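Input record (one chain):
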Amino acid sequence: MNQLGGTAVIAVSNSRAKKPPFDQYLYHQRHRIENLFARLEAFRRISTRYEKLATHFSSMVSIACLLVWLKL
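The corresponding structure, as predicted from the sequence alone:
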């Protein structure tokens, strides 16, 4: 555990003799977030950071998330 209170949520291989504790629910949630980041990279405007102001960039990320959610 680090200073901010986070824990590692990475699956280990089955061949490992001593397996550390693993929370499958947290791993599933982490995987969903990583998939969202991968989908957001498809939007060129976000991946290249065309918007320089934080408010504009945040708005574009919100619009992209909405489009991913609607699957357009």
